[in-house]
Write the structure tokens for this entry.
Amino acid sequence: MVYKAQAPGKLIICGEHAVVYGQPALAAAVNLYTTAVLTPAKTGFKLDVKTDIPVGSGMGSSASVSAASAMALLKLLQAKPSKELLNQIVYELEKGVHGTPSGIDNTTVVYGGFIKFQKADRVFNFNKLNLKKALPEFILINSGRPKETTKEMVTMVRDNLKRNAPIIEQIGEVAGKFISNFEKGRFNPELVRRNQRLLEKLRVVGKKAQEIVHQIEKAGGVAKICGAGGIKQGSGILLAYHPQIKKIKTLAQKNNWKYFYAELGVGGGE
Ligand code: MEV
């Protein structure tokens, strides 16, 4: 018997970093997948894991790899493993990799869709929002793989918490507004722009990513990082929007930026 499982990637539409401190955030499952195949063998079992997700680039590769692998194992142990159990396991694995994760990455890759997330003490409060139509088309641009890990970026923010606390609060306000608009079926690009500016103020966005965002804004669009970011080299994948999306595609081609389209709000791990 072979046990197969898959889990999507994720991106954070608004509220990253601040979500670690109890502020609200919105994330989406993305149609890039990790697949895990578990084959029992005489001396235990063999686990083959493959992922399409750019590794260490803000798209939840670690949560997705953990979710697909854990789901394959759970299938071996139980007939129908629950999402709740899978989420708890992936959260524990995320703690091993990232130290103090908020829980948004594991929750998004496990449950899928659009996840409104807020942590209260040790409890995850999250809702799955069914509002696919509220979001326009995006392009994802690769600003380069960050040299830093998510754990390092989160630690950097924490090490300067006195300076960063007001910025974290402002990110929470912007994210809260974005989410309440989104729940009414409205997409507000100005709030994406403000979120990105605050992330720059938080010092989690490198020079190259800032330059890309600046050019997109100059052309009338908006863009932001969608995970922990990075400052020494790349800052991972950027989520970019323009009312005429082709304009970003043209800019990307002109500047040799790597870009791709992705579907947001896909199903979770199974
Ligand atoms: C990483 O995808 C998102 C962060 O907010 C960390 C976390 O929430 O665990 C930077």
Notes: The chain has a mean pLDDT of 95.
